[in-house]
Amino acid sequence: MAALNRFRVLVIDDEPNILQFLDMGLGNEGYIVRTAKDGVAALNQALEFQPHVVVLDIMMPGMNGFEVCRQLKSQIRTAVIMLTARDEVDDRVHGLNLGADDYMIKPFSFQELLARIQARLRNQFPELGGIQFLGLFQLDAAKREIHYRGTLLELSPTEYELLYYLLINHGAVLSKRQILEEVWGYDFNGEENIVEVYVRALREKLGDTEHKRIRTLRGAGYRVELA
């Protein structure tokens, strides 16, 4: 059974370098990714995996992308972004008429593909809106919930605010003073060491015994690593 805690993307292409590139790139962005190198394998994968988005090459041996798109759209709820090496209007029209939701010409920008995937998710899966996926974390600001590795973390209100602040600023070094002002408020008059106490509690709940997820940079502050 496919995991439901993150967005799922199926990449279908007969070029191994594209499959490897998108598998790694989309995975690093927090998506659950599966790949297939031909149409028959893709259809079998899709029925079990139930992808939210399919990135689909047109020119493949055997069953081409047009036929894969037609069958996908008739069997599962998914958004299809078609890829082609040819900038032909007829190809785009044919794909759109078969149910494709978007179209990109090879070679393409990875950042543009990400933006198109996110647009399709917003438009076609609005019930999943308001959820952010950052590496192994899922943030739901509306529900004030954070999942890690698919499991809901049991957090106090302050623990939630602290972890949320660290995550949305992942990669940046945040000083204790910055954290106190953002999480506890400008009028907080307590000791800065309170930050250490809460970071320790978060590490325990994350199983971060080696401090690889929430890093301490002595004399500077803390930094969250997603990868």
3D structure, described in words:
- This protein is an alpha/beta fold and 227 residues long.
- The protein folds into two domains: 8-128, Rossmann fold, CATH 3.40.50.2300; 131-224, Arc Repressor Mutant, subunit A, CATH 1.10.10.
- Helix content is 41%, strand content 21%.
- It is built from eight helices and eleven strands.
- Helix 2 runs parallel beside helix 3 and helix 6 crosses helix 7 (176-184).
- The longest helix is centred in the middle third of the chain and has 15 residues, at 110-124.
- The radius of gyration is 21 Å and the shape is elongated.
- It comes from Acididesulfobacillus acetoxydans.
- This is Stage 0 sporulation protein A homolog.
Comma- or semicolon-separated keywords:
Arc Repressor Mutant, subunit A, elongated, 4-stranded antiparallel β-sheet, 2 domains, 5-stranded parallel β-sheet, alpha/beta, Rossmann fold, 227 residues, disordered N terminus
